[in-house]
Structures are given as structure tokens and as C-alpha cells.
Design a protein that fits this description.
With about 375 residues, this protein is α/β, with parallel strands linked by helices. The protein is built from twelve helices and twelve strands. The protein has helices spanning about 100-105, 115-120, 145, 150-160, 175-185, 200-205, 215-225, 245-255, 270-285, 290-300, 315-335, 340, and strands at about 50-55, 60, 70-75, 75, 105-110, 130-135, 165-170, 190-195, 230-235, 260-265, 335, 365-370. Helix 2 (about 115-120) packs parallel to helix 4 (about 150-160), helix 4 packs parallel to helix 5 and helix 7 (about 215-225) runs parallel beside helix 8 (about 245-255). This is Radical SAM domain-containing protein.
Length: about 375
């Protein structure tokens, strides 16, 4: 397998070095590798490894005007969905791990997340406001089936009547319809499903371990039928790869019961840019240069524009065109704009502090578990 060959079930094609690693790695073929030999462990796709950890804090705060929330919670670090465009990939560099394959195979489960949330909500310093769940990494990625951390967090939210918004690409969210329905009856939750494309062949390589686009639409129908407010996030919009699906996604989501919608243009911060370009060369070599030229047009000539107000939508003629198409589809299908609709409708006045608060140390020795 060459260094940039596609790996079945994974988004990244390499384990490129993170920018904070102390040691330099260089790929070198010494001729001993047995290509396409399934009996050779070195030739098999990388397995998922999960490290259980006790986090010291659980809530992350931001002051970004581009986001409709100021507080978020991520039960896991790294994400097995393997979305090649994920803006959170560079966070693995802080762990001296690769934002490439490590990000989707070397995961960390914050097993004390619910206890930490309970402590935060019990503190007199907590002023009730919505919490966004699963912003950096999907709270319903495959390992949630084993750990149930996200469900524990929702149980705390239900007990405390804490407003909480969920964003996911996973069918596992259906498991928690009972809790989400209870929260929805009190105007305490909204669930956003991200749909990047309706093309299954593209989705399989772009976000290889997430639910299929058709499955996500079915999830919307089930959530809406249970009285849970549903939103669709068309993200990211990738020029010449997924942009043609914008109107079709909004139409399908509205028919499935979505009440609001939002979109985000492709973002390529730090290591995401070379990883995404490797993906382009692997799956769309015929248009790779064209895609990147348009990305740079949207980002002021660079691979990524980090400035508030521009990083999510881009700038220039093409960005204006996408905005007009989005607005037109919103009006046609009677959808609200997600940023202004979702969190503003959650009721913080119902909040009550938890009756019990766990005690004890938050420190432990990380325990690693291998999973396929």
C-alpha cells in the first residue's frame, strides 16, 4: 500500500506528522513490505484504539460571533467517523498524535464527563445557557455504543432541565429519543443532522464511518415524529464536489421534518489542508486543482481564512452566490435559518441545579482498549 493509497473505511490516506511532534517521521520503503497480503498485520487497515480518561474539565467556552452558542461539550477526543474535512483534526496535534489516521483511530473517551457536567451545573457560577453537544467530535460516534457517555450527559440535562443542542451524523441518536423527547416537551433541545452530500459514493469516502445520507434523512423523520425539533446543517459545502447538492439537501430535509437549516463552507485550517488535498488526489484527481483554486478564491487567496465573519461562509462572488442559493431554498421550503432559530428557542428559565453532586478525584491512569 502506497503512502497515499485510499484505506477502506478511513478518511485520511496518511498519518501525517502533527505540527507539535518532537520527532520527525519519514516514510521509506525498504522493500520488505508485502503488498496486498491480508496475512501480514502491517498491511491491514489500522484498528481503533480507545483510551479511557478522566478529564479535569468538560465545558469549553468561546466568544466567536460565528457560532450561535458560547458553551460546548465533547465527550470524546478524536472521531471514528473519519470525515476528511473535519476542522477538529488539528487538535490531535496537541496530543503529539497525527491529525490524519491517528485522529480517527486513536480516540479518547472522557468517562467522567457526566459527573463533571453535574458539578458545573451545581456551581453558583453557572448561569443557565444552552450547551452544544458534539461540536468538535461526534457525540454519537461508534464507541458511544460501548460507553454511553452521551446518554449519561443527556440524563443530567433532563434532571436539571438544562438546554442542550445536539449535532451529529450518526443513527445512534435514535437510541436516545426517549430523553430527547422529554427535553423537547420543555423546549430544552434541538437536534441538527449534518448532511454534506446526497451522493452515497462520495459520502463513503468523504465521511466513511458516518451514517449514509439516506439514513440521516430517516433519522430526521423519526426525531420529528417524536416531537423533537430538527435542523439540517449542510456542511461543509465543497466546490465542484458537493455544492450542487445544496438545494436538494434542503428540499429533502424539509420533507423529512426539518424546521431550520444552516450551511458552512469548506474550512481547511492547519493540517486539514494537506490531508484534504491528499483525499482529492486519491478520489478526484481530475478536479483537484480546480477545487483548491476555488477554495482559495473564497479565502482571500489562501487555503484558509481564519477571520471571524468570513471563515464559515467565505468571501467574494462565489460566496455571495452560495448565500443567494441558500436563502432562496430556505424561502422555497419554508425553513428558518439555523443560527437564529435553534438556540434562541431553548428555555433557560426552567433550569434547576442538581440535587446530588459526585465527589472524589478526577485523576486516574488512562486505560487503553483496542477495538476493530
Amino acid at each position: 500500500m502506497s503512502d497515499q493509497s485510499p484505506i477502506k473505511g478511513r478518511g485520511a490516506t496518511t498519518n501525517m506528522q502533527g505540527r507539535f511532534e518532537h520527532q520527525v517521521r519519514e516514510v521509506f520503503d525498504d522493500g520488505w513490505e508485502r503488498h496486498n497480503d491480508d496475512t501480514d498485520p502491517a498491511s491491514r487497515p489500522p484498528q481503533t484504539q480507545i483510551t479511557e480518561e478522566h478529564a479535569k474539565s468538560i465545558l469549553t467556552r468561546n466568544q466567536s460571533p460565528d457560532l450561535p452558542f458560547h458553551v460546548s461539550l465533547n465527550p470524546y477526543r478524536g472521531c471514528e467517523h473519519g470525515c476528511i474535512y473535519c476542522f477538529a483534526r488539528p487538535t490531535h496535534s496537541y496530543l503529539e498524535l497525527s491529525p490524519g489516521l491517528d485522529f480517527e483511530t486513536r480516540l479518547f473517551a472522557k468517562v467522567n464527563a457526566a459527573d463533571l457536567l453535574r458539578r458545573e451545573l451545581a456551581s453558583p457560577a453557572w448561569k443557565p445557557e444552552p450547551i452544544a453537544l458534539g461540536v468538535n467530535t461526534d457525540a454519537y460516534q461508534p464507541c458511544e455504543r460501548r460507553y454511553g457517555i452521551t446518554r449519561q450527559i443527556l440524563e443530567v440535562a433532563r434532571e436539571c432541565r438544562q438546554p442542550i443542542g445536539v449535532i451529529t451524523k450518526s443513527a445512534l441518536v435514535e437510541r436516545d429519543i426517549d430523553i430527547l423527547s422529554d427535553l423537547a416537551q420543555q423546549q430544552l433541545t434541538v437536534v441538527a443532522l449534518t448532511i454534506t452530500t446526497l451522493d452515497h459514493s462520495i459520502a463513503r469516502t468523504l465521511e466513511p464511518r458516518a451514517a449514509s445520507p439516506t439514513r440521516r434523512l430517516k433519522i430526521m423523520e423519526k426525531l420529528a415524529a417524536a416531537g423533537i425539533p430538527v435542523s439540517v446543517s449542510v456542511a461543509p459545502i465543497i466546490p465542484f464536489v458537493t455544492d450542487h447538492d445544496l438545494e436538494k439537501i434542503l428540499k429533502s430535509a424539509a420533507e423529512a421534518g426539518a424546521q431550520s437549516a444552516g450551511y458552512v463552507m469548506l474550512r481547511l485550517p492547519w493540517e486539514v489542508s494537506p490531508l484534504f488535498q491528499q483525499w482529492l488526489q486519491a478520489y478526484f484527481p481530475d478536479r483537484a486543482e480546480r477545487v483548491m483554486n476555488r477554495v482559495r478564491d473564497l479565502s482571500g487567496g489562501k487555503d484558509y481564512q481564519a477571520e471571524f465573519g468570513r471563515r464559515m461562509t467565505g468571501e467574494g462572488i462565489w460566496a455571495d452566490l452560495i448565500r443567494k442559493r441558500f436563502d432562496g431554498a430556505l424561502n422555497k421550503h419554508r425553513l428558518k435559518e439555523r443560527r437564529s432559530a435553534d438556540f434562541a428557542g431553548l428555555d433557560c428559565a426552567r433550569f434547576r441545579r442538581p440535587l446530588t453532586v459526585p465527589s472524589g478525584s478526577t485523576e486516574n491512569t488512562p486505560r487503553q482498549i483496542d477495538m476493530f
